[in-house]
Amino acid sequence: MSQKGHAPIRTCIGCRKKRKKEEMIWLTLSDEGVVVVNEKKPHPGRGFYLCPDLGCLNTAKKKKRGVGFLETMDFRYLSAKGFSKEWKGLN
Fold first, then answer.
1. Which terminal Cβ of the chain has fewer Cβ within 10 Å, N or C?
2. 8, containing H or E segment
3. Helix, strand and coil percent figures for the chain, each rounded to 5
4. Structural domain containing residue 55
């Protein structure tokens, strides 16, 4: 029996806080091996959730959390592009 008004909860791999799924950013690899941010359709394979904050992304990398492709991301590029602001605009 499903509960009315139930919202899926996910954990940020950076800060470890729990939030509603729709408040989180989901990262995974595309078929081409490119990191996909907040893709709406299901994607096979591993992925992880982050809060819409660049600090959580940096914490996840520093503490070596997440799946292997996290280590290959260029965080300097993301910071220069205002990635944190872009994430907030996605939700």
1. N
2. none
3. 35, 20, 45
4. 9-90
Tens-place pLDDT, residues 35-80: 667 666 666 667 788 888 888 888 888 887 766 666 655 555 454 4
Take residue 83 and report the two structure tokens written for it. Answer: 């990635």
Q: Which amino acid is at 24?
A: M
CATH number at residue 40: 3.30.1230.10
Residue 26's nearest CA partner among 4, 6, 3, 45 is 45
Task: Judge whether 4 lies within some domain.
Answer: no
2 found inside a domain = no
Residue 34 lies in a domain: yes
CA-CA distance, 7 to 34, in Å (whole number)? Answer: 29
User: 14: number of CA atoms within 13 Å, CB side?
Assistant: 18
Q: From residue 65, how far is each of 3, 4, 9, 17, 75 by CA, in Å?
A: 32, 33, 19, 14, 15
